[in-house]
Amino acid sequence: MDRSRLRKRVVVGGAVAVVAAGALLASPDAVLSRAAWLVADPVRLLVAAAVLAVVRPLLAWPTTLLAVLLGYGLGLVGVLPALALVTLTSVPPFLLARRYGRGGSVADAGEAFVDRAGGVRSVVASRLVPAPSDVVSIAAGMAGVGLPTFLLGTAIGEVPWVLAGVLAGASAERLTAGAVAGAADLRVVVAAGAVAVLLLGPTAYRWAVDRFATADGSVQIGES
User: Fold this and answer.
1) Does 30 score more than 80 pLDDT?
2) Coil, strand, or helix at residue 144?
3) 129 phi-psi bin (left φ>0, alpha ψ -120 to 50, beta other)
4) DSSP 78-123
5) Higher-scoring residue by pLDDT: 16, 209
6) Measured between alpha carbons, how far is 19 from 26 in angstroms, rounded to an integer?
7) Predicted confidence band of residue 12 (pLDDT cuts 50, 70, 90)
8) What is the mean pLDDT of the chain?
């Protein structure tokens, strides 16, 4: 095994170990239990949310926590800062995957699909799917999506989840883990999933058919 590949494995393995340790040793309850103190001062709340956005990837906490917290403290005014922080907190896992996750059949397939579907559309649709945010970020990084494209697609695709989180926080009398979980409204999940299918369904079908035909040695089917 060459040194470059070994270094990649060490970095990725170390990152996974740090995230796993953070998830085991820390809990969102540490933030939620201090919510009343944080929201008493809007400036303090925004600073705390910004710090949380920086460390969140290391703790494997859901990005929805940011939206719920800002909704609890700021109401609907919290939508824009929440969307900005949710977008920015997705960058570290994306950059890690882009730097160390390129290459291999999975990454090559992802890159081919993004080339066909378009970077922004691929990221938007992926964000609309009710999947863990960091998984989507890592997949985009492995597929070689550019950073500006990733930021734009993430900001658009996270809108329904941020709105749901802010509304859940704004309507909560007391911030608890249940409020964060309650942000995943079934109607939002179904609607967002339907939009994702409309965005990528036809392209995904043609891409799968082309790959199957190529694997069989048949003539590649072009896009309609």
Assistant:
1) no
2) coil
3) beta
4) GHHHHHHHHHHTTHHHHHHHHHHS--SHHHHHHHHHHHHH-HHHHH
5) 209
6) 10
7) very low
8) 81
Q: Let me know if 88 is exposed, middle or buried by CB neighbors in 10 A (0-12, 13-18, 19+).
A: middle
Cβ-contact 97, 142 below 8 angstroms: yes
pTM for the full model? 0.79
Tokens, residue 79: 């939508």
Q: Is 27 helix (H, G, I), strand (E, B) or coil?
A: coil
Q: How far apart are CA 4 and CA 131, in angstroms?
A: 31
Please name the residues in contact with 57: beta carbons below 8 A apart, sequence gap of 6 or more: 19, 89, 92, 93, 134
More confident residue, 17 or 79: 79
**Contact, 83 vs 48, CB < 8 A?**
no
Which helix (H) or strand (E) segment holds residue 187: the answer is: helix 186-215
The one-letter amino acid code at 183 reads A
Residue whose token pair is 């369904």: 201
Give the chain's count of helices (H) and strands (E): 14, 0
How far apart are the C-alpha atoms of 145 and 161, rounded to whole Å?
22
SS3 content of the chain, % helix, strand, coil (to 5): 80, 0, 20
- Nearest by Cα to 157 from 168, 145, 169: 145
The amino acid sitting at 45 is L
Which residues neighbour 121 within 8 Å (Cβ) at sequence distance 6 or greater? 153, 199, 200
